[in-house]
Amino acid sequence: xxxxxxxxxxxxxxxxxxxxxxxxxxxxxxxxxxxxxxxxxxxxxxxxxxxxxxxxxxxxxxxxxxxxxxxxxxxxxxxxxxxxxxxxxxxxxxxxxxxxxxxxxxxxxxxxxxxxxxxxxxxxxxxxxxxxxxxxxxxxxxxxxxxxxxxxxxxxxxxxxxxxxxxxxxxxxxxxxxxxxxxxxxxxxxxxxxxxxxxxxxxxxxxxxxxxxxxxxxxxxxxxxxxxxxxxxxxxxxxxxxxxxxxxxxxxxxxxxxxxxxxxxxxxxxxxxxxxxxxxxxxxxxxxxxxxxxxxxxxxxxxxxxxxxxxxxxxxxxxxxxxxxxxxxxxxxxxxxxxxxxxxxxxxxxxxxxxxxxxxxxxxxxxxxxxxxxxxxxxxxxxxxxxxxxxxxxxxxxxxxxxxxxxxxxxxxxxxxxxxxxxxxxxxxxxxxxxxxxxxxxxxxxxxxxxxxxxxxxxx
Length: 460
Ligand code: LLP
Description:
By secondary structure, this protein is an alpha/beta fold. 30% of the residues lie in helices and 25% in strands. The protein is built from twelve helices and 21 strands.
C-alpha cells in the first residue's frame, strides 16, 4: 500500500504508525488496511474508465466487487468515492444495504440465487440483478410477476474467452457453471434440440416477460488478469451479439458490464497493466466494434475487486517457532530451508493452499540486517500445506517475537477466512490520517463456543 514505509530505525510503518505499535495495540494476526490507498485505487478506476469512455458513451460506472473484501467500512469507502457495489449473496447484499449504499447502485450476482435473495433484491430496489441462466430468468420473472414487481435484469454471457490465469478462477470458457453461452447449444435445458445459443434463448425470454426489464448484458472472463487483450476480445464478441439482438428483435440494449478481474502484483515478478491502460485498450475495442456493427455505444460498467482492495491490505504476524530442514537441491546436493512459523496461516489466508498463490514477506519490527536466507513462512494449522509464503529470503536471525508483514492481502482473505483448528479470526484495522481504528473486531474463542448447542448444559 502507498502508506507503507520504513522509519529511521528500520521498522515498517503504515502511515507513520510502527508495525510493533499496531501489533501491540490490536494483536496479531492482524489485517491492516490503508484506507487512503483503498480510496485512491477506487478513484483511479473511476476516473480512468470515465475518461476513457467519456466521448464514446458519456463515461462508465465502476462497481466495487464486494466479494473481494466487503465490510460496512469498505462498502462506504467505495460509495463515497462514487463507486457502486456488487454483491454475490443475500449476506453481501445485507452488508451493502446496511452500509447505506443506494440500492439502485447495487448489483446482485450469483449462479444459484435463492427465492429469498431474489425477492430481497426486488423489494429493496436493487438496481441490477445479473441473471446467470435461462432457468433463473424464468423463475425470477415468475417471482417478480407474483409480487407485482419488475426485475431489472442484466444477462451474464460467456463469450468463450480463456483468461490466462489459474483454472479455478477463469470463468468465461464453456465448460463451467457460470453464464449463458454465446455458442449454439446441442440441446436446451428441456432437452430440445434448438441449435440456438442459451444467450439468445434468454434474451428472447427476457424481452417477452412483462415482469422483466432487460437492461443489458454482462460478462466476466476471470480474475488476476494482467493484460487488456482478453477483456477486449470478450467485449468484441459480446458487442457482436448485441448487434444480433438488434437485428432479431429491433432493440439495442442500453448497458454492457465487462466484469472484474484486473490483476495486482503479489510479488516483484508480477507486472499487471495499470487500470488506465486497460481502460484505453478496452475503449478502443468498444469503439471499433460498435462502429463495425453500427451500434450506439452501450453504457459501460466494470466490477474490480482485487485491484482496489488487494494492495491496500497487509497482514502482520508474530513469529513463533523457527527450524531448519534439509531439502534436496535440483543438482543432487543437500540444501537447507528455514521454516518460520507464524501465529496464523490458512485460516486467515487460504489463497496459497487453494490456488498455489505466491506472496512475499518482510521483517516488520526492525531493520533486516542479518544475511537473507531462503525461508518458508508457514502457519500454525495441522496440515503441511499450510503455507503462507512458499519461498522468501528473510534475515537469518528472524526469531520468536519478530513481526512479519505479508503485503497485498486486502482481497479474498478476510472474506475467505475460516475457523479451522478453532482459530478465532483476526481483527481488521483501517488506517487513515495517520491513525488506526478497528473495523472488524478480533473473534474470540467465546464467539466460537457461543454457537455450540450443548446438550449437557441445560442453562444454554
Ligand atoms: N465480477 C464477477 C462477476 C466476479 O465473478 C468477480 C470475481 C469479480 C467481478 C471480481 O473479480 P476481481 O476484480 O476481484 O478479480 N477467490 C479468488 C477470486 C475469485 C474471483 C471470483 N469472481 C482468489 O482469491 O483469487
